[in-house]
Amino acid sequence: MEPPQLDDASQPLAEAWQHCLQQAGPAATALLHAAAADAPPALAQRFYEVLLQDGRARRFLSHDQVKQRLQPAMQRWLVQLLTT
To answer: Which range has the worst mean pLDDT, 2-6, 40-44, 50-54?
Structure first.
């Protein structure tokens, strides 16, 4: 998976995350890679379940948007984050 293009505000955050991963070592990297293989679907589903319980959020989001676009996008983001 190709890394996303980052804007000026995101670049320092990405570099800090990379630094943290390097400092954590290979055991942490292996753990995060294992989590990336299994956890993103459940994490994204739970996030949007909770979000859609908020009446204010429901005004802006439909279940179709969440299922078709937002939940898959969050899953991809989590995989990228955990396997960087």
So the answer is: 2-6
